[in-house]
Amino acid sequence: MGHLHEIKRVYRDLRRRIDTTPSGLPEGPAVYDILKILFSEEEAALAARLPIVPTSIDILAARFKENKETLKAKLDRMADKGLVLDAVHPRSGKAFYLLAPPVVGFFEFSLMRVRTDINQKELARHYHRYMEEDHAFAKMFFGGDTVHGRTLVNENAVNEGDVSYILDYERATALIEQSKGGSVTLCYCRHKAGHLGTACDKPVETCISLFNAAEHLIRHDLARRASKEELLDLLARSRAMGLVQICDNVKQKPSFICNCCGCCCNMLQGINLHGIPHAVKTSNFIAHVDAASCVGCGRCARACPIGAVSLLPVPFAKRKKYPLSARVDESLCLGCGVCAAACNQKAMGMDPRPERVLTPETTVERVVNMALERGKLQHILFSDPESLTHTVLNRFLGVFLNLPPVKKTLLSKQVKSRFVQSMVAAALGKSRKWVKKV
Known about the structure:
It is built from 20 helices and 13 strands. By secondary structure, it is α+β, with helices and mostly antiparallel strands. The chain has a 6-stranded antiparallel beta sheet. It has a 3-stranded antiparallel beta sheet with strand order 1-3-2. Helix 2 (31-38) runs antiparallel to helix 7 (120-131) and helix 7 packs across helix 10 (188-196). Mean pLDDT is 89; it is low at 431-438.
């Protein structure tokens, strides 16, 4: 990465704009190299003016003083490249657009398929420098109680008597059944690792998208359509290979289920590489060891994707035949069930956690939570960079919300819950007004 004065202003403006999203895009090694590969200067200039909330093409054309059809064609081309997200009203066909975040967004979209319009090998090197050799992005992305991914327990590893504790939004099989199919893409993480020469032996085409997210990816040729039966088969094969299912951290219509390995997955590297214990939300289960049945073979420890299972010596007087026994670090355990599935002795099992893990109901609730925790809520409330009023209110609210006493009060459990619920209700109300206008 060159010095900042050597970077064209258009890319500095774009980075600052993307940094207003809850995932953020802080300064770091290679960040401008990434943006230059993905965005032309014209695309960067347009993207830097886009809102981070869905906005109709009519409003955008009026705001930018540009012909609606011309602007729509530009945005559609950017959506095909994975740089912009779009939503189309099912009855009117009216299009709404917003700037794609980096994660889950244009970082993944750039490597979800083999492409010739960008240098994917060079891009993979820049991603590695930005996200793995530096901690700034991980600190921002995982820097709150609400994170983007949550663990799905392997339903087959749960004791029969505890299966009733698994709710439908916690079952990968139920989510696939509800979606009636979806799409499959290359795993961004293993594809990137392949270009770096560090990929493991797990398959690359393993990422599942569901509901509206799947339709978006298929519409823009970023993924291929897959039947419910194919997705269930992929899920079963991934579990047999010891992969962890990480899902979008929402209850209603989650956008993805990734089949992850501890060596390549960027979300799990938040734990393994950056040392952030809760970079991925746990399931509502936790692993436990039956010491009497454990023979200390180490299969569970080798299978655990984040090193939460280890082998410890057993006092010789207590057990002479098997000198080692497995131990679970409950402060780290994801509750994925990979260790239990790997155990041949049935010494490793999954227990319901004493206190249920809370999951945001919708994407809107998750985004508001993430923005509040990361000090970026003002960018959602006042997101029009073309409006002087929005700019002034954005800065004022940003300073106010980040005052230590205010932030501490808003992040307290009760106040935060009421505040977020009121924000979600307001967002849904605004969304309904858009639909009526359409």
